C-alpha cells in the first residue's frame, strides 16, 4: 500500500510540474496584444478545432472504407451471378438485370464531396443490389458469407444514422422518396437471412429511428410542413407493417400521446408554458395509432404475435393519460377514446 501511495504522490507532483511548465510556456509565447488568459483560450479553441477536424476526417475515411467494402462485395456477387447455369451465354434480360442491380459504383473522388443524402443513396443502392440478387438466386452460398453479412449490416446502420442526423437538423428536409427507398430495403432485410445474426441490432436502430421521426413530428412548429409531417407519419406506418416492429412502434406512439396529455394537464393545472403546435401535431400521432391498429386487426398472423398484456397496458396508459383533462380538452379525449375502443376490440378478438 505504501509503495502505491508513493507512486500516486509522485504522479501528482509530476502533474503539477507539467501544468506549471505549460503555463510558463503559454505566458512566454503569448503575443504582445493578448493577455495570458486570452492566449490560453485561443490555444484551447485551436486544439478543439483540430480535434473536430480529425473526427470529421475519421468519419470520412470510415464512409470511404464502407463504400470500398460495398464495391468488393458487389464485384464478388456479380462474378458469381455471371457463372454459367446450363446456358452457353446470358440472355439479354439477364444482362439488363445485371446493369440495373450492379450499377457502376462511384469513385472516391466522386463521393468525397457529396451530401448526406447522396451517401444514403449509395448505401441503399447497395442494399437493393444484394436483395435483388437474393431474390433471383435464392440458394447462393456467398450470401451467407461473413463479408456480405457485415458489409450489409454496416450499410443498414449507416442508412439509419444518416436519416437520423438529417431529421435532427431541423433546418433542412430529407427527401421522402429516398427515405422510402431506404426503409423498403431495410425492412426487407429484416426478413432476410443475409443479416439474420444482426436482426436484433438492426431492430434496435430502427426503433431509435422511429423515435426520432415521432420527436420531429411532435415538435415541428412550421405551418407549411403539414404535407411533410403526413409523409413522415406514413413512413412510420409503413415500418410498422413489419410484425416484429409493431409492438415497439405502438409503445413509442402511445408514450408520445402520454407526453402530450401531461403537457396539457400541466398547462391547465399549473399554468405552465405550452407549445400549441404540440397539440396540433398530436393529430398525426392518433393517425398513426389508428392505421397501425387497423393493420393489426385485419392481419390475423400479426395479431397472433400480440399477447394480451401489452394491449391491456397500452389501453390503461391511454386512459390514465386523460386524468383531469377530458372535460377541458374534449377533442383530445375523443381521439384517445377512439383508440382505446379499437384496443378493446382487439382484446375481444384475441379471446376468440
Percent of sequence in beta strands: under 5%
Task: Give the strand tally.
Answer: 0
> Counting H and I runs of at least 4 residues, what is the number of helices?
14
Indicate the low-confidence ranges by residue numbers: 1-5, 84-113
Q: Mean of the pLDDT scores?
A: 77
Report the span from N to C terminus.
Answer: 70 Å
What is the strand and helix layout of this fold?
Blueprint: H1 2-29, H2 36-82, H3 92-101, H4 108-111, H5 116-136, H6 146-168, H7 176-190, H8 199-219, H9 226-240, H10 246-270, H11 276-298, H12 300-303, H13 308-320, H14 330-351
Quick recap:
By secondary structure, this protein is mostly helical. The protein is built from 14 helices and no strands. It folds into 2 domains: 55-79 and 97-194, no CATH class; 225-352.
